[in-house]
Amino acid sequence: MHEMSLAEGIVQILENEAKKQNFSRVTEVCLAVGELAGVELESLRFSFDVITRDTLAEGCVLTIEPVSGLAYCFDCSVQVPLHKRGDPCPRCGGFSLQVVDGTQMRVKSLEVE
Ligand SMILES: [Zn+2]
């Protein structure tokens, strides 16, 4: 499952930060997840719960902040919101779109102790 490896990646980031910043527990993780990142949020939450067991982030609060998808429409020559890959341009209904934002997932902030 794709989300399992994403959750593993997050724990890896947390462990690296723990070494750098010298903390031993993570109490809250805030993730920014793009609408177009192809991440199933429920599945990510489940995976995160499983993966963080017996780690420094066990039982921590996971906050997910959605990042809107954004695309450039070559027909309209403007940037338009795009909520799903494969959707048409909301202005002209065309498909000459290039995704410009909302494809990333990253750790936005941490609460630690
Ligand atoms: Zn358009």
From TrEMBL:
Q: Which family does it belong to?
A: Belongs to the HypA/HybF family.
Q: Locate the residues binding Zn(2+).
A: 73, 76, 89, 92
Molecular function terms, GO-annotated: metallochaperone activity; nickel cation binding; zinc ion binding
Q: What does this protein do?
A: Involved in the maturation of [NiFe] hydrogenases. Required for nickel insertion into the metal center of the hydrogenase.
**Tell me, which GO biological process terms does this entry list?**
protein maturation
Q: Does the keyword Ion transport apply?
A: no
Q: What is this protein called?
A: Hydrogenase maturation factor HypA
Gene name for this UniProt entry: hypA
Pfam family, any one: HypA
Q: Does the keyword Nucleotidyltransferase apply?
A: no
- Which amino acids does the record list as binding Ni(2+)? 2
Q: Which domain of life is it from?
A: Bacteria
Q: Which HAMAP family match?
A: HypA_HybF (MF_00213)
**Any idea which UniProt keywords this protein has?**
Metal-binding, Nickel, Zinc
Q: What NCBIfam families does its record include?
A: hypA
